Amino acid sequence: MNLPPPPRRSLIRLSAAVAAVALAAVALTACGSSGTASKASSGPGGTLKWAVANAPASWDPVVDGSGFSFNYTALAYDSLTHTNEKGKAVPGLAESWKYNPDGTQVTFHLRSGLKFADGSALDAAAVKAYFQRAQTQTNSALVGEGIAPIESIDTPNRLDVVFNLSQPDYQIPLVVAQRVGQITSPKKTPAQLNASPDGAGPFKAVSVVPGSHATFVRNPNYWDAKNIRIAKVELYFNVDATTVVSGLQTGVYNFTDELSPSQVKAAKAAGLDVVLHPGFNANNLSVNRAIAPFDNPTVLEAVKYAINRDQIVKQVDFGYGTVATQPFPKGYIAYDPDHSDPYPYNPAKAKELLAKAGYPNGFSVPFVVSADTPENELLQAQLKAVGIDATLKVDTNWSTSFFAKKLPLSTYGTTGRDSPIQTLQAHFGAKGALNSSGIDGGDAYQAAIAKALATPLDSPDYQKNIQAATAAGLETTGLVFTDTVPNIFAKSTSVSDLPKIPAKITWTGVTIRGS
């Protein structure tokens, strides 16, 4: 799941002590900040100084529940598969995989010689132990993340891992890409992994200071180490949004993944590279259709007509976002073109529907959110204009009530999943973390999901079946999607271009010039 704050990740203050450490580091190891990407030097070099809003909830990927922070844990852990620029599954720790004829069993063949950071072997037994822990650990954040169909795991030899599935499911290679498949050392407890990550990723943890910073160095035992050109990574957490641009300009940092649309102009003026990185982001107004008056379909329909998405894109996203009517950006394989604009902004119709539902004078409802953001305030005003008095309240314990399905009205922002079926289940499945009502999408939805799962990823019917599942989920949902914004990064020009893999920050091939 993705944790708050929706609908924008926000940067918060870096402590003075950490800032002092960062400034001292600049004095000793500052890299050049002019020019463009350079060719790789004869060996790895340079320090990536990465400004981050929030640290992972845990450095154990089984426990960490925040979607975007898997980009941070991916420094230490590698996953069974990766995704490429087109969002397709490609080899990672597993160099290949193969399904049985009916799609109920998939065998992943690991690369030989894989090692964890502590030098122990990463073999089939370690992979089995990881997925068993992900399925059974009490505080696992991965239980609902597409691994439920794995009924048992066989390890016929050191390099083969066999997933026996309860149903045909060709999404597994996408499911185990990064978020779900970051393999941890079975020798370490969750507490030990949180204190010092132990995986087989491109970097090794040197130190982790909770809430402050973390340091990693290049892992020479990584299977693709030859393409890791950065020698060291320093993560600085809780960075203040108001100072991140100046921090990049002066060299305190040389990369951030947390630039807001309102900061793009200032970042460009400071001579920084602003990168619009593709992603699966989608924001929504979460209407709980299990709570009155939203249990009335006519009231829910009125809400959908009340939202002016174009105004949100213009005023909140500064034009960098686009209108969203579903949990996928336009052009993505699962995007259903038939639902591109099913409820165009029409406040007059919204008022008419409310009157038809028995609320000619509107009604009042609590609007509980995790943060006071411009988008939340704009949504409140748009609802007020049609007669819905949404009383905005910021609750620091918002997530407890939201995931318990107790809030009648709220907002949520998601970074999506590598598997589109995972994303659909999270939004429309009865147990989906992002389904604010907990009401299942219905028989038609379940049939469409089953059909999509049973379709091989290279089948000519795959896109059609995935889009049909999206359409089925949208027919009954209480989620009113509003806008989607690409991931906006800013970096010093000394940092070369990043691979444009959707929703992923990947450092393969990236160099830092002038170090």
Helix content: 25-40%
Mean pLDDT score: 90
Flag low-confidence runs. Answer: 1-41
Shape: globular
- Helix count, per DSSP? 15
Q: What is the total tally of β strands?
A: 19
Q: Report Rg.
A: 23 Å
Which sequence of strands runs across the widest sheet? 8-9-10-1-11-19-12
User: Which range does the strand content fall in?
Assistant: 15-25%
Instruction: Give me the secondary-structure category.
Output: alpha+beta
Separation of termini?
A: 38 Å
Strand count, sense and barrel status of the largest sheet are: 7 strands, mixed
Structure in a nutshell:
This protein is an alpha+beta fold.
Structure, described:
It is a single chain. The protein is 26% helix and 19% strand. It has 515 residues and is an alpha+beta fold. Strands 8-9-10-1-11-19-12 form a seven-stranded mixed β-sheet. Strands 4-5-7-6 form a four-stranded antiparallel β-sheet. The chain has a four-stranded antiparallel β-sheet with strand order 14-18-13-17. A hairpin with a 5-residue loop joins strand 6 and strand 7. Helix 8 packs antiparallel against helix 10 and helix 14 runs antiparallel to helix 15. The radius of gyration is 23 Å and the shape is globular. 50% of the residues are buried.
